[in-house]
Design brief:
146 residues; mainly alpha; Mitochondrial carrier fold; 5 helices
Length: 146
Amino acid sequence: MQLSTTKVSAGDIVRSTYKSAGLKGFYRGLPSMVYFAAPKAAIRFSGFELFSGMLTGPDGSDIYNLGKMKGFIAGLGAGTMEAIFVTTPQETIKVRLIDDAFRKEGPRYNSFFHGVKSIAGEHGMMGLYKGLFPTIIKVSTAQATR
């Protein structure tokens, strides 16, 4: 639905996907989710610890008297790092791979890694960062509230 140029329902997408690719079609884009899961968690948790440590004194005290806001602020920082280093390129790659799989001429990418290499080659590293600011807002606020 995200890539559709016409108005379609979720049911239309389910029927169309099953008809064209069977059950396997529902898992397009899964490799990007799997390959990026560990780096995403690593950045999130280490970022939280980094920002939390910056707000804590050497004796473990809350040096800015932030109370519960300390965790919220550390979450914002961690989410921002996650969005910059993992989520934005992951989402770009995932959507481009899904779009490629539905091309009328047939897919151009042979595999996840071939797709990543081709996408980076065609669009450059900055091409992987389209939508960075909205992604930072989405991920940082989600991690802050978490």
